Each structure stands twice: as C-alpha cells, then as structure tokens.
Amino acid sequence: MDYTCQGKILERSDKEEIFDAIDELKVGMEVSNEAEAYNLCNTYAFRKGFSIRKGNIRRDAQNKVRQRDYFCSKEGFQSDEDLCEVKKVRRLDTRTGCKALIRFTVDNGIWKISHINLDHNHEFAKPEERQFLRSGRHIPCVRAGILGPKVDESTRPTKSYPYLGKKFGNAENVGSTNKDCHNYLQRNKEEMLEGGDGQSLINYFKHKQMEDPSFFYSVQVDQFNRITNYFWRDGRSRLDYDCFGDVVCFDTTFRTKKYNLICAPFVGVNHHCKNVLFGCAFVSDESTDSFVWLFETFLESMGYKQPKTIFTDVGDAMANAIAVVLRETRHRLCIWHISKNATQYIGSHYSNHEFKEHFNKCFHDCLTEAEFEATWNDLIRKFNLENNSWLQELNSLREKWCPAFSLDTFTANFRSSNRGESITSTFHQISTKTMDLIGLVQHYEKKTKVVRSAELEEDFRCKNGMPHLRANSGIFKHAASEYTIKMYSFFENELMSIFGVRMIEVGNDGNQYIYEAIEEGHPRVYIIEYNSATSMVSCSCKLFESIGLLCRHALKVLDLKNFTSIPTRYIVKRWTKGAKKRIVESSDLYESSNKMGKSAQSLRLSELMHEGNNVFTIGSLCDSGTRIVKQKLVEAMKLLESDEETTSMQGNLNKVDDQFVRDVLLDN
C-alpha cells in the first residue's frame, strides 16, 4: 500500500508502523479509504493524548462520500437531559466545546486532509492515562497478532492483559484496557466458532465438557474422515432420562436451513406431563447405518438403559435401526405425524367431518383387534379408498399405531396429538433460521433452559400449593398429596367419573372377584379383576398399563371395597411430586444392562449422581451446609482410598491407561 505525504511516497507493509511514524498531521496527507483515514487520525490523537469521534459527512448526488470530519471527543456540549427520567446509569459530562477538527476531502477515491484545527481547550491525557482514551481503546493488528494464538492455547482472558504489558514494556504502552483485551478474546473466539466448521463444534463440545463433566458428545465420520453425524446431551439430560426415560419421542422432521442436516431431538415427558429433552443429534442422512450409530450412541450416553417405548415418524431405515439396537423397546408411530401426513395424502377426505370421525375412531376408540378391523374396513368401503396406497401402507403398520394391538404398552400419554405440536413449537425455528452448527446447538440450549424453567415453576407450584379437592377426604387427599398438580387433575377426572360407571359382579372364588362394567351412554363392556388378598386390580381398558394411572373402572371397584387411599403398587413414581428425589434401579435393569458391558458402573454412577445432586443442592443453601458436605466428601474419599475393592479397580484402570500411553509411544 502506498501512502503519500506532501508529494513523498512512503512504502510500508505495516499500516500501524506508518501511522506511528507520523508525529504531526498536515494538509495534503493522503490515504486510500475511510478506515485508513480514521486510523491515521486515531493514531495521531492517541500519541498526543486525546480521543476522537466521527463528525459531519457530506455526500454527492451518487451518495458517494465527498467530505468527512473527525472531531475531538470533547467537541460540543452535552444536551440537557430530562432529570425526571429514571436512568440506571448517568454518564459523565466530558464535553468542553473543543473546536479541534481534521477534515478529509475525497476525490477519485483518494482521501486527502484539506483542513486542520489542532487547537484544543483542554489538557491532553498523560502517557499513563492514554490507555483509557475511548477511541484509543482498541486492539491494533500487532496486539491482535499476539493475542490470537493465546485464544487457541485457551489462555484465560484475565491473563492476557499482563501478558501484553510484558510484551510492550508496561501497561501504558498496550493502548487498551484489561476489559478491551477480554472483549477482543471473546469476539475472536466467537468469530472462530461462527465459521460453522465441524471442528469448531467439537471444540465447543469440549468446552461444554469442561464446564459440565457429565456432558456427553460423539461424532461419526465417513470413509473420507469427514464428520457426518453428531450427538450431544448435557449432564442434566442424563438425570432426566433416569427419571423419565421410559418413553422417548425421536423426531426427524426438522432440517437445518443452512446445512440441510436433520436436527433430531430425543424428547420425553416429565412428571408434569410436559416435554423434557434428553439430547439432540445432527444427522446427514436417513440411512439405517446413521440411525444405528445414533441409537447406539444414545444408549451409551444413558448407561445402556433402553426406553420402554419409542415414538417416531414412519420410515423403514429408522424401523430397521430400532429393531437392531433397541430390541427391548416397543416401537410406536407418532399419531401427530400420521395426522399431518393425512392432510397431504388424503387431504380431500380428511377435511370431511364424517371421514375424520371414522378415521380418528381407528386411532383412539378401538380396544380389540376385531373392532379395529371392522371399523377400518367400513371406512375404506364407505369412502371408496380401496386403491389408496398411503392408507394401504398405514394399515400394514397398524400394530405400531392402533391401541388395540398394544394396550399394554406404556406410552405416558405420548399418543396425544398435542404432544407432537408441542415439540414442533419448540424446534420449528431450527428449520427457519440460518444458523451455523454452533448457533443451532446454542438455540437448542436456550430451548432446554425454557423447558427446564417451566418444570421448575411447576415444581414450585406443587411444593407451595395444593389443588382444590372435590371432596376433602379419602382417596382425593391421598392423590393430591402424591401426584403433581397436572397428574392429579387427570386422576381426579377418572375418580369423579366412577359415578357414571355401572358395575355387576360376574365371578367370585373367594379372593378373586370379576366384574363387568359399562359407562352410561356407551355399550362397551369392561372386565375388571380384583384380588382381595393382594389388593391387585386390573381392567381390560389397560389405562394403568399404558399411562400409569388407575382407570375409573378399577377405581369403582376400590370404592366398592371401601379403600380410602390408593394402593402403593398403583402409584407410579414418575407421576409424583418426588419423581426426581431418588432413582432406584430395578434388578432386571441391572441384568439386561450387564449384557451390554459397561452398564453396571454406568448405572451405579447414575444413582450416585442423583443422590449427590440432592445432597449438593441442599448443602449449597447456606455456608454451614456447604461445610458439612465438603467435610463428608473428604471422609468419603478416605474411606474409598482404604477400600480394597475400590483401590484394586482403580489400579486396574491405571494399568490400562499406562499400557495405552506405551502403545502410543511405540506407534510414534
């Protein structure tokens, strides 16, 4: 770049070095653009001890800059402010009416100083004070070149400023404040991450892992060593999965706008019947291999604990992967997705009220296979849909969506269509916003905070209030004390509905009773079995098996038998106020998990994490509580160090690590 000074051309590669060489500004000095004009004035001002700001600008008919003024920052006077206006911060009045001015005139793209007034009416800043000049508080190229590598080395921002002070002799020579260095490092880090590079996302995950040791992430690469799939979840998601991981919805309907990746969240339902997030993935394609990797990775992150039920959209690749990886899990199709697809494939019929009534009956009101077959065939014949390929495919998958084929499958009420709508409302912005991968992850994190805040609010409501009881006695009081407010409302609706149930005893062998029940206005007959010796009750509607709440028919029997509380076996912990207080792993879960290898330790770790989380939360409420927890942790560590089995296991791990290091050294 060429710089002209009174007819003399200076050729320098470093702009700062050129500007630093100029002790005085003179009319006729030329630069190539506005940025160089500002830097020239700013460098001069800093050397003298004052700050500048941009002033008047004049443009020609083509909107090109013809003239630009740079003022001393003390030019003019501060305008009078409304003293009645409440402001959090009132800035100091620093204006003195200084007339100092540097004017550039622009001709054919050349910026030339045409007028200068260097008379100031105030004192200049002393050398040790110049670092606080507003326009001088910047990170010039030389400083940035030094700080840049420090970002990669993960140097803390608080150490960057002393580092520069040493490099330039002292803090006064840095030309910026400690805060400026901190801001630069933060901006530089953000700019590095905003590139959308896969490695940047991995670096971001590593950073999250440093903040949260329980944070988990994994990536898959193709044959060319290119990253294709990502999965991540934080530590809180693992705890939530331990509590509510019996039912999972895996949604692949969202695609990132910028990269066209599939954004696939794993979603559950908590004890308030609200969404809870277990993790998320970016998947490059919908192949069986990608889904197999993803489900295996998801299980690994959750201690190999398989859900009881997983809901997905229709897809052969996904179904194949579930059959391979989630062998203990029932695969169900999300009704919301089916309804959405119906508007596309049978839109003209779906808008017909009579058709929709018959169609919905197949999804919600058929409790036997024979009843479904009759209803479905009637639907096809009545609307002449024998040749509709989409309905033919849907019928072939009926065991995955019709309740008649899976009444005993626990769904946590995930079948309801509003659940899918809720997930969509949470993630639809991913498909509309142009974000890089890190931006998408941060968007997911924001949504996670919203979801968890809603759960926290509901926990607070449950802790500090009780629902209004229809009857202040018996089962009503017991249910209100156990269930969350939301689940109590569901239970209360069933309990109040017993008054519309008509029941007769049809069998009795001493301890085992059999009843037939009908609901007023409905012809369907329900069979209820009750054992007086064990207090076990079951109903053919299978509401307890599918949702975890006793149905009105079973409650009718308990009322007949004068129960004043819900039998303990029928209070499902996941729906109670104390759902997250403790995690008790069943023995069968340990057995099935041990087949997977690492899971025994994972499950023990999960249990300890829950117990520890409760202890740490309570201990952190005050200083004395914190001291108690820290003291007991020290005692626990001493006990572990003296335990033979623990030290033996730790020694084995150290041997494995040492061998790994030796193998690496030999390979190199």
TrEMBL record:
Entry keyword set: Metal-binding, Zinc, Zinc-finger
Pfam families hit by this protein: FAR1 (PF03101), MULE (PF10551), SWIM (PF04434)
InterPro entries: FAR1_DNA_bnd_dom, MULE_transposase_dom, Znf_PMZ, Znf_SWIM
MF GO annotations: zinc ion binding
Domain of life: Eukaryota
Domain spans labelled SWIM-type: 526-562
SMART domains recorded: ZnF_PMZ (SM00575)
PANTHER family: OS01G0519700 PROTEIN, PROTEIN FAR1-RELATED SEQUENCE 5-LIKE
Protein name: SWIM-type domain-containing protein
Organismal lineage: Eukaryota, Viridiplantae, Streptophyta, Embryophyta, Tracheophyta
